[in-house]
């Protein structure tokens, strides 16, 4: 096939064409994002102990990661072709691993996309030997969340939104997220001794993809298993020992000390000062000038250690402190202007403490509003486990405050206790205007969408006018929402069979893409009718034509 021949020689073309043709190849640079790794939990199931974790992979490179399917193999795998564009709009291609069909998710994945490891912590906080590891995890790679919209080449709508075709990838500035509830998101730690370890995620461990930088594929954070190694365990918000450390964390992410919105009242228990000099920093947003009753406070047993507290402004300058000798410390926010603040909690004269609680009661003003724009009235369908759905919303605050939005779904438009929180949506900046639902994280079914907005003090919410239904099957002729290769909906099914699907099929057929290898025979009475055979011929075209005429 034409595309496969290009793929075989692409390794030689990359770089050579850059010199010979005077063009620069725009390569992706894939990294593991730290924030998702903090979303981890230990579970005991059937006598086994597991560390479950979320994982995010982002593209910070100059070019998109563009992957599509090539030759199929008898073992059920399919070659992955990586297409790399250049500054003139041309491209070269190379073979970059394999796709496999994932029966648990019902779609194809890029094989061995990430590997999760638990490593020793050596003297001085060094990185030691691997103690345990998870199986290499295969991903369907999609644009699910914005990572950095300031990067050159960032496409506002993203491009890769479906696993229904063999076109997958990551646009510049976009991120893929796999929640800890999905299959494969764990390390078996049954035989791991209690203690502190490095939790490491390594993207593309086989170096199958060609990238700008192959040295930045691993990210790691400290985690504590069981009882730790010292008399006091680090809490879930570590490392938060400095202002810069807190600033580097994403606002409102899982276990992030960069709390952001905390209203109407936030209480964080089970915090610790686990070692002398372990100062805990937290950052929060005050949406209006404080009044009487607006406070920050810590509660603890003084007999276990004397703990004090400082309040700092957005510049990090201390503006108040509380240094009593009772079982709490409290600082009033009355009269303090709106904006960002830091709380610094520390042990007096090097004291430690096994457990304190932080309470933040921020100011309030006019309640922000949110409107859920999609799904619109009626019902919209997408393929479960294969397609994503973008929820669009409009968040507003009459006082001009920052806003954050969190998304739930339910089978009725009511908050009745059965609503399902979409974890990766928590504290999405209201200015983003959308959230992408990964259907693999929900059961098939029909859902109303609820968005809650907060300005850090008060909140409100709105239900969608219509529903989104994730169904198990799709029309066999529905391949694309657009016939324009530059359209983000090119190669993304849209629930109807129309001219866009026909021309998309012709494009892939002409290019020799085995994505459209759909049948061995053109005879409906033949057992090979509708069964791929690893080659493209008239049988595939006439099978598609039959399905197209039938419609969706």
How is this structure best described in words?
- It is built from six helices and 34 strands.
- The strands form seven sheets. Strands 5, 6, 7, 8, 9, 10, 12, 15 and 16 form a nine-stranded antiparallel sheet that branches. Strands 27, 29, 30, 31, 33 and 34 form a six-stranded mixed sheet that branches.
- A hairpin with a 5-residue loop joins strand 21 and strand 22.
- It is globular and about 85 Å long.
- The protein has three domains: 2-225, no CATH class; 243-361, Jelly Rolls (Sandwich), CATH 2.60.120; 369-471, Sandwich (Immunoglobulin-like), CATH 2.60.40.10.
- With 552 residues, the chain is mainly beta.
- The protein is 9% helix and 40% strand.
- Helix 5 (499-511) runs antiparallel to helix 6.
- Mean pLDDT is 89; it is low at 1-20.
TL;DR of this structure?
The chain has helices spanning 2-13, 16-20, 34-37, 243-247, 499-511, 538-550; strands spanning 30-33, 40-45, 48-53, 55-59, 65-72, 78-85, 91-102, 107-122, 126-133, 137-139, 145-146, 168-170, 174-178, 186-188, 195-203, 218-225, 258-260, 266-273, 280-286, 295-299, 307-312, 318-322, 328-332, 339-347, 353-361, 369-372, 378-383, 388-396, 404-410, 420-421, 428-429, 434-438, 445-454, 459-471. It is mainly beta and 552 residues long.
């Amino acid at each position: 096939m034409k595309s496969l021949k290009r793929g075989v020689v692409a390794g030689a073309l990359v770089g050579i064409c850059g010199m010979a043709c005077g063009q620069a190849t725009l390569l992706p640079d894939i990294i593991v994002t730290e924030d998702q790794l903090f979303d981890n939990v230990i579970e005991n199931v059937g006598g086994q102990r597991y560390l479950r974790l979320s994982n995010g992979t982002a593209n910070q490179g100059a070019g998109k990661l563009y992957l599509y399917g090539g030759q199929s193999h008898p073992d059920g795998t399919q070659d992955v072709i990586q297409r790399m564009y250049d500054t003139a709009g041309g491209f070269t291609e190379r073979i970059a691993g394999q796709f496999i069909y994932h029966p648990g998710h019902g779609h194809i994945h890029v094989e061995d996309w990430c590997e999760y490891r638990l490593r020793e912590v050596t003297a001085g906080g060094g990185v030691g030997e691997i103690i345990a590891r998870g199986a290499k995890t295969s991903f369907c790679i999609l644009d699910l969340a914005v990572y950095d919209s300031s990067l050159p080449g960032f496409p506002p709508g993203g491009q890769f939104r479906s696993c229904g075709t063999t076109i997958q990838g990551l646009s510049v500035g976009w991120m893929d997220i796999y929640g800890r509830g999905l299959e494969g998101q764990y390390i078996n730690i049954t035989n791991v001794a209690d203690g502190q370890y490095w939790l490491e995620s390594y993207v593309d461990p086989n170096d199958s993809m060609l990238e700008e930088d192959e040295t930045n594929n691993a990210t790691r954070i400290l985690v504590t298993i069981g009882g730790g190694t010292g008399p006091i365990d680090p809490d879930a918000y570590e490392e938060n020992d400095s202002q810069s450390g807190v600033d580097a964390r994403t606002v409102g992410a899982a276990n992030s000390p960069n709390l952001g919105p905390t209203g109407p009242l936030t209480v964080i228990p089970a915090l610790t000062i686990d070692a002398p000099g372990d100062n805990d920093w937290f950052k929060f947003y005050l949406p209006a000038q404080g009044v009487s009753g607006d406070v920050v406070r810590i509660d603890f047993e003084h007999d276990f250690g004397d703990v004090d507290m400082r309040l700092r402004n957005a510049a990090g300058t201390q503006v108040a402190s509380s240094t009593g000798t009772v079982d709490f410390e409290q600082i009033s926010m009355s009269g303090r202007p709106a904006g960002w603040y830091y709380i610094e909690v520390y042990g007096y004269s090097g004291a430690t403490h096994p457990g304190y609680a932080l309470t933040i009661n921020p100011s309030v003003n006019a309640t922000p509003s949110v409107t859920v724009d999609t799904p619109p009235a009626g019902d919209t369908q997408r393929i479960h486990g294969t397609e994503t759905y973008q929820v669009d919303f409009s968040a507003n605050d009459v006082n001009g405050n920052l806003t954050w939005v969190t998304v739930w779904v339910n089978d009725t438009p009511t908050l009745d206790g059965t609503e399902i929180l979409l974890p990766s949506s928590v504290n999405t900046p209201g200015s983003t205007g959308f959230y992408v639902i990964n259907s693999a994280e929900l059961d098939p079914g029909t859902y109303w969408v609820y968005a809650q907005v907060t300005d850090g003090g008060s909140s409100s919410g709105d239900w969608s006018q219509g529903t989104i239904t994730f169904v198990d099957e799709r029309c066999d002729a529905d391949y694309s929402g657009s016939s324009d290769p530059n359209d983000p909906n090119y190669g993304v099914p849209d629930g109807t069979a129309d001219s866009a699907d026909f021309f998309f099929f012709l494009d892939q057929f002409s290019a020799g893409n085995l994505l459209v290898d759909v049948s061995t025979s053109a005879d409906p009475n033949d057992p090979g009718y509708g069964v791929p055979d690893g080659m493209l011929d008239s049988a595939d075209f006439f099978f598609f034509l039959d399905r197209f005429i039938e419609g969706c």
